[in-house]
Amino acid sequence: MVSIIIPCYNVEKYIPICLNYLSQQTYKEYEIICVDDCSDDNTLNILQSLEKNALNLKILHNEIRQYPNQCRNIGLNNAKGEYIIFVDADDLLIDFTFLQNAINIFQKQRNVDMIIGDTLVWDNENNQNYDIPFSVNKMLSIDKKEDALNLGIGWSVWAKIYRKSLLIKINEILKDVIFIFQGEDIFIYFLCVCYAKEIYFYKKNIYLYNSHPNSYSYSKNIYKQNPPDEKWENQIIAIWKLILNKTTEDKIMNQHIRNKLHSFFKQKYTFTKLADDDFFNN
What is the pLDDT of residue 112? Predict the structure, then answer.
């Protein structure tokens, strides 16, 4: 079985079509777990209405705001499936054969822990979709784990399917970390790349990312609400060192990760020592 986990926060406009697309998957042995994160629009009512006619739809509701990563973990803890896929409520899984094909891959290649698909981006402002610059389809050679670090928007947790056992392992590593910031996907993704025995690159567009003003509705202004403190910074440093230590023997992978994380920190966390060149050179 596949468990599809969807964090939901103020997505009344998007969740019906998201679920409609999921219902068109040719593989039917799946459950959908929607985690409502204290929405203050009509999201929860819509989900409860849809749940009445969908035997494979499960609705969980947070009493306290948890944010995307914690919502995914709540879904994971309630998941029955051996395989896990994350979908954002305002996005679409557009390859209707993906789940079936993924199951076939997992069953034939027992060492594959993670399958990475490609993403189309829907630009609401210009009313058009486009491919991402660094995608599975566009890379001339993509067969090594380090290739997974060169995938532009691919550092997200969506547009992928995982063995549940891999995610449980990552959750155990991160059990004391509470993510409250934009960009948490990258740490989970890099850990998955490090700990997966093998990665399969699925060279087809499976996911439509909906780029609109509320795309970052979870994390918008979150720094003002929860300014990063020293404890937060130390947690991130610990994760960074853990990722590097895991790849110490693989010098190519280690250097790839070092370069990618350094670039990411300089873009996202300019207000912390994580962005300092001296920190990364030590």
Answer: 95
Q: What does the pLDDT read at residue 221?
A: 41
| Least trusted range by pLDDT, from 98-102, 161-165, 234-238 | 234-238
Spatial separation of the C-alpha atoms in residues 274 and 272, rounded to whole Å:
5
| 58 token code pair | 């499960």
Residue carrying the six token digits 């060192």: 241
Distance (Å, whole) CA 57 – CA 48:
9
**CA torsion angle 102 68 127 16 (round to 10):** 70
As a three-state string, the secondary structure of the chain is: CEEEEEEECCCCCCHHHHHHHHCCCCCCCEEEEEEECCCCCCHHHHHHHHHCCCCCEEEEECCCCCCHHHHHHHHHHCCCCCEEEECCCCCEECCCCHHHHHHHHHHHCCCEEEEEEEEEEEECCCCEEEECCCCCCCCCCCCCHHHHHHCHHHHCCCCEEEEHHHHHHHHHHCCCCCCCCCCCHHHHHHHHHHHCCEEEEEEEEEEEEEECCCCCCCCCCHHHHCCCCHHHHHHHHHHHHHHHHHCCCCHHHHHHHHHHHHHHHHHHCCCCHHHCHHHHHC
More confident residue, 183 or 15: 15
d(CA 36, CA 6): 9
**Rounded average pLDDT over 193-205:** 89
Residue 124's pLDDT is what?
65
Q: Which residue has the tokens 């995307």?
A: 68
Candidate from 81-85, 92-96, 214-218 with smallest mean pLDDT: 214-218
